Amino acid sequence: MKNIFKKFTSHRLGKVVPVLALSAVIAGCANVTNPVPQDPWESYNRSMFAFNDTVDRALLKPIATGYETVVPKPARTCVSGIFNNLQDVWSSFNSFLQGRAHDGINMFGRVLFNTTMGLGGCIDVASMNGSQRIINDFGVTLGVWGFDSGPYLILPFLGSSSVRDGISTAAWFAIDISPPYAPIFEIDNIPLRNSILALAVVDLRARLLPADRMVDEIALDRYSFIRDAYIQRRQALVEGRYVDAADTTRDGLPINDKALSVPDYSIDDDAPAAPAKPAGQ
How far apart are CA 178 and CA 235, in angstroms? Predict the structure, then answer.
């Protein structure tokens, strides 16, 4: 199995390199004369979006599709739940930093409940008992503290971001901390650590496949659709408007809710959407 995976990866990378080179040349020629105010760097962003999309379609998406096809859904749900549990620790910490103590306590309770009764998060018993997830990160914390998001920005490999969120990401890398997966980086067994990180990436991409198909079906311009959804969702999180979400992705899809239009890539197939609620309640 290991040799087959290596062979597949080598074959896939052999296709990726020339395609990336061609994509970079073509994307670099893009020029947007009248960008929207939230996206003054649209020419660059579209180029980087094309680059990331090429990497995804050539490497990540095929692997994620294979993972979705081969691994039974209960096993995938278990894996996703464990990684979600790590994210919930980080969300709880940021809620406290934002002064949203009620949300922080609720999320910390979710972590304790799912870690013990839910076998490390494999089973989301907290959601089963009415405790919904609140997605949070340090970029949202900076927004709550009053920092403007700044222009929309596409980061290499990481995708949608903004100046504020990009600075947040870079800051954590600079001090050699990678929340919410910091505990994984502390594993001394390098092969084991790298395997878990690779599984996290594949799991995250696999959870985006349904939304990815939806974007392909309904979006006239894939780039602008994802951009607008990202900006809406980040603003909603800063303002304390939530939806029930099941992963840590940044890109999102708009939901049909007159009271709350928050994009979300990640609502679980079997979980009902939670109603909007004000922060701290």
Answer: 23
CA–CA dist 142, 98 (Å, integer) = 8
Q: Which one has a higher pLDDT value, 31 or 89?
A: 89
Q: What is the bridge-based pairing of β-strands 159-162 and 152-155?
A: antiparallel
pTM higher than the cut 0.90: no
What is the rounded (10 degree) CA torsion for 96, 171, 246, 48? 150
Contact 32, 43 (CB under 8 A): yes
pLDDT for residue 280 is more than 70: no
Q: How far is 260 from 235, CA to CA, in rounded Å?
A: 11
The whole-angstrom separation of Cα 147 and Cα 144 is 7
Q: Domain segments of the chain: what residues?
A: 2-238
Predicted confidence at residue 172, as pLDDT, reads 85
Under DSSP, is residue 29 helix (H, G, I), strand (E, B) or coil? coil
d(CA 50, CA 58): 12
